[in-house]
Predict the 3D structure of the following.
Amino acid sequence: MIRVCCVCRRIETNGTWETRTCLPDHQWITHGYCPECFAEAMAEVEELVGELTAGGGNGTACGVMDGQGGRCG
Ligand SMILES: [Zn+2]
């Protein structure tokens, strides 16, 4: 099983990520992130999560639940 970065298309071989012009077609290929693109993707996710949590709604869900059974005790 070899891993191909779905962002920069580099291929992991023996623990290192290299750019290749062609893929070895006799092996199973799985798509993922190389460490660099993974870090970038995580940074983007954290940014999105930050925007979502900063956009309000703190406690709103709890308030709704409280009105219908108080499961947020
Ligand atoms: Zn990558």
Observations:
- The longest strand covers residues 2-5.
- Residues 2-55 form one domain.
- The pocket of zinc ion is lined by residues 5, 7-8, 10, 33-34, 36-37 (CB under 6 Å).
